[in-house]
Amino acid sequence: MGSNQLKTQLATMRDALFKQGYLDEQFIQLEELQDDANPNFVEEVVTLFFRDSVRLINSVEQALEKTPPEFDKLDKYMHQFKGSSSSIGAAKVKSETSLFREYCKQGNAEGCVRTFQQVKKEYTTLRKKLETYFQMARQAGPGESASRPKLRFQVYPVVGVLASVFLTSFKLYKSTLSEQNNASSYVLFLLMSVSIMCEV
């Protein structure tokens, strides 16, 4: 398969992730932070999200086995999951984590268990899709950025302001690093900063 054909398929796959609601504008923000010095920035951030998610999912599963469930601990884990999901633009995962937290506040164990299954389903689906996407991106090689959906920060002005401040700070932070440091060195800054936005 030719490079141009791969890039066309890649763009189609990417557009589908947005149209189907798997990704939101935050993923676009990550793409805009990627540059020649860090050509794999987005993939590295997403890979770290996957690794952290496995840890959080295991922690939630263990907490749900307690009788009665430890809702405070469950809410804490899901708060972390929501923040990291938000940081990469995992829209469907983030939505389900929000619902899970509502059930925690209500002390609804059945609702937590049911919603957690949906959280895992959305996470697994997104992971498979993104792993396929990044694999194809590597095969296609470097190229111009795909056409990006228009950002709609004006719909949520407070979040928009926070996002703008965060991105400006992050770019300044990134520029201070030596070329030897890759995205993994400062991605925790990203995750912690965006988790604040999730509570707006």
Automatic annotation (TrEMBL):
Its main location: cytoplasm. This is Histidine-containing phosphotransfer protein. PANTHER family: HISTIDINE-CONTAINING PHOSPHOTRANSFER PROTEIN 4, PHOSPHORELAY INTERMEDIATE PROTEIN YPD1. Pfam families: Hpt. InterPro entries: AHP1-5/YPD1, HPT_dom_sf, Sig_transdc_His_kin_Hpt_dom. It comes from Stephania cephalantha. It is found in: Cytoplasm, Cytosol; Nucleus. GO terms for biological process: cytokinin-activated signaling pathway; phosphorelay signal transduction system. Functions as a two-component phosphorelay mediators between cytokinin sensor histidine kinases and response regulators (B-type ARRs). Plays an important role in propagating cytokinin signal transduction. Keywords: Cytokinin signaling pathway, Phosphoprotein, Two-component regulatory system. Residues 38-133 form the HPt domain.
